[in-house]
Design goal:
Tetracycline Repressor, domain 2, mainly alpha, homodimer, 10 helices, DNA-binding, Arc Repressor Mutant, subunit A, 73% helix
Chain lengths: 196, 196
DNA sequence: GACTTTTCTATCCACGTGGATAGTAATTAT
DNA sequence: ATAATTACTATCCACGTGGATAGAAAAGTC
């Protein structure tokens, strides 16, 4: 038919992920051009503008979080969940998270709730995480390894808020240690739920 | 000496509080003129521009939070703290919080950590809250009313993250009930710490 | 090689932004 | 009253933004 795009979709999205991740939605279209190799023209014609392109990027991020980052109920029990929270602020991961936070979380801040497309993705993020956590808690409850002082319902909501809160702490941090301490305390909380 | 300002400092700050609260730092200088009665000229000469004015407004917000909103260790025990968390999302308060969140929290999102003046105020907010919570927990620990499964250190960090996380949940909400449920679950957690 | 289709390059645009400035009006000290 | 001081009005400005558009260039089809 016609000429091929200089940069293909996948590498463009990968580069954009990097860019939006560090700068949020405020990254300018000029900078998107530089970093992704796309042109503002292509941005317009192929993705329907900056916002459409951002949505695609956010989708890619969520896919990745689902596959790689979130705790997996298949392999993860209550103690594993505690470790997972600690790993969020682990020395090898914190430099990255430290600077950029979580793209989905940042999007909650960048957009108000008037944007339906963003909303869908924010909800997907929250739902995904809560489901994972709840599955782990339900297993622990039926195992008898969950202390009976707190219902899986309450516990899973608390853990969602704790993940979000940890992200805020990371974003608000001045001292690098703070986030790690908070993650440790969250882990300690989860471990206190392990019924012996 | 000279002419008086049409709008005085206090009412201007009060109006600005309202504006920044609902729109964040993105509120335009034009809108600040409308809502506060100040002129862009006065904004410049008397406050050093938009940012200086915003900082003054944020200070006023923090003062208010400290005096009126935060839980008071003098009158508040562990059970009271649980109630306080629930009250954050209470029916009479949630419509407000729902729409506007917390100005200090929003500022964490609006600015990066490169801004020292904002940082100072964000830190003040976090420190104020953590100190209040820690005082309550320390009292409970020495009372013997705090369950020994979690240290006051860990518990206070967890509660800071929970407050922040609750704010995110409120901001990200689609359904109005969600925030209330989360607040209730947090309250349930705190109550589970009450040693009987 | 001619035609078609799509992307690329290079501008151009309207808009909103925070801020600057010059001239005018109001208020107070003398 | 007059002078001094401050705030107000009304523009003006430079800048960055996302987006639009016209023409050139490249890659297919025939």
């Amino acid at each position: 038919m016609a000429r091929k795009r200089k940069a293909d979709h996948d590498t463009a999205i990968a580069a954009a992920l990097d860019l939006f991740w560090s700068q949020g939605y405020d990254a300018s279209t000029r900078e998107i051009e530089e970093k992704t190799g796309l042109t503002r023209f292509t941005l317009q014609t192929a993705y329907g503008g900056k916002e459409g392109f951002f949505l695609d990027t956010l989708d890619a991020y969520l896919d990745r979080a689902e596959q790689l980052h979130f705790p997996d109920p298949e392999t993860c029990d209550l103690a594993g969940l505690a470790d997972w929270f600690e790993s969020v602020a682990a020395p090898d991961r914190i430099p990255l998270i430290d600077q950029r936070g979580c793209l989905a979380f940042n999007s909650i801040a960048d957009f108000d709730r008037g944007n339906a497309e963003i909303n869908k993705r924010v909800q997907r993020y929250l739902r995904m995480f809560e489901e994972r956590v709840r599955a782990i808690l339900d297993q622990a409850a039926s195992n008898g390894t969950l202390t009976p002082t707190l219902s899986p319902n309450d516990a899973s909501r608390v853990l969602v808020d704790l993940l979000l809160g940890l992200h805020v702490t990371i974003k608000a941090r001045v001292d690098d240690d703070v986030a790690r301490q908070h993650a440790k305390s969250i882990a300690a909380l989860v471990r206190s739920w392990v019924h012996t």
